Amino acid sequence: MENQKRLLTKKDLLKMYFRGYCFQSTQNFERMQAIGFLSMMTPALEKIYQDRPKEEKVRAMKRHLQFYNNHNTMNHFVVGLCSALEETTDEDHKELLTSVKAGLMGPLAGVGDALYFNTFYPILASIGATIALEGNVLGAIFLFLSFGLINHGSKWLFLKLGYEKGMDMILSGQGNKVISYMTTFATIVGLFVVGQMITSTVSLKVIFEFASGEGVIQIQSLLDKITPKLLNVLLVGFCWWSIKKTDGKCITKLLYGLMALGILLSYIGFLG
Amino acid sequence: MILKCLLVGIWAGFCGLDAFGPQFQFRKPLLAGTVTGLLLGDLRTGLVVGGTLELMWLGVNAVGAYTPPDVTTGAIVGTAIAALTGGDVSVGVTAAIPVATLMQQGIILLKTIRNVFNGWAEKLAEAGDFRKLDQLQVYGVLLTFFMYAIPCFVTIYVGSAAIQSLLDVIPAWILTGLNVASKMIPAIGLGMLLNYMLKKSNWQYLVLGFAFANYLGLNLFAVSIIAIGIAGMHCCLENKEAQSEEGGLDL
After folding, report:
1. Average pLDDT, chain B
2. How many whole angstroms separate alpha carbon B117 and alpha carbon B229?
3. Closest B-chain CA to A42
4. Residue B20: which of A25, A111, A202 has the nearest Cβ?
5. Which residue from B218, B228, B233 is spatially nearest to A191, judged by alpha carbons?
6. Between B179, B213, B231, which is nearest A188 by CB?
7. pLDDT in tens, A53-101
8. Which end of chain A is less packed: N or C, by CB atoms within 10 Å?
9. ipTM more than 0.85?
10. Cα(A43)–Cα(A49) distance, rounded to whole angstroms?
């Protein structure tokens, strides 16, 4: 009975899983994995937006072209959940998607790195490498099969889980209220995450210093006395402000501007 | 010889795709090196150099926006040079380290070039056709493939000494500058996210996230956990108010 309500079939999810094979091939500094995310969502979006007007499709695409950076494996959960949300929310509640993505990418990336890169892989790789050092090819085969199975088993499971559990939760009755609280919840977590990322993903260091009397004055330590990461805040603040003022039209200019600025300031020995 | 180098180059391309895609982890030293050895007809050297580098670089991972030394090209070139010069492990390891460090710059360059896809994607989105975006993924795949294949092929073919002299010609300030710029560019993405999420009523959470990270030195995961707690509190309180007014949600 519940299955009748669900638009996406196992085949659609499978298509999305295989699209994950190119997930990061357009990953870049400006928006990280945004294009890859939209590309993974394509089978779901095509089905969900089949009979909707063009403007909604355009909005859906632009929505998923926002900055997104997650762990390669854990991302599958977000793709599944976002498919469920796209399917069940109406046009007025779509901002939920952006918040959910921003809120989930922080914790999931942390868990993913800890679990897959720092636990499963090192254990399996050190076993495999030890066998390989004796010149035994089984070491390499062991690593490939064991990690491949764990990693890709998880991916498929996460994708399915995200979609099915997401649908269950939303269809459980008080759908609109669940969505409204999820939006609030996700936005708060998302803002915390962005606040943290201002200090970690962006990095600026002034190396310029000048002699004054007997000592040397380092600009960076002067700035740090006001507050550490002051320049990060100013830079992100400036980007946010100019995107808001121009309604997003200045992004390309910002990108080339920052690149030129970075190279120039590093050339004259101001930033390093 | 050129055929073998070509084969290894193609293998390097696929390893690059693995790194940015399925992550079967044949881009890691053990598997990348083993197959390189196999292609050059010296499986044993592949296993030993690959295994050595694997253990050496076990902790090298891309976390967040950080781009680590590229162990993939390091392992492939290291193994190939060891296999072609008689199978000495130390030769392989010595060749692998500078290649990995250099390719770290190459990957930064790759992720910088890929910035052009964003504006392009926005333009494609105007058509409202989801499939149109797929071409970008294809270009991304091709770009990644050659970004790994060509350096590996050239390095193995001409030898690493020639690469070093070529590198001396490139002024260092370009590489440093690119590095500095690449750490500033994520600010645009964050600015865009804020543009969507930040409202007059919720700025305090952004401030808190920043404060926890900046003054208490908490990492992203720790901040997220705190955020989940506070967001839960916010929702509970809001729900309590709603309940007394109009009957809220049973949480």
Report:
1. 87
2. 37
3. B130
4. A25
5. B228
6. B231
7. 999 999 999 999 999 999 999 999 999 999 999 998 888 889 889 988 9
8. N
9. no
10. 10
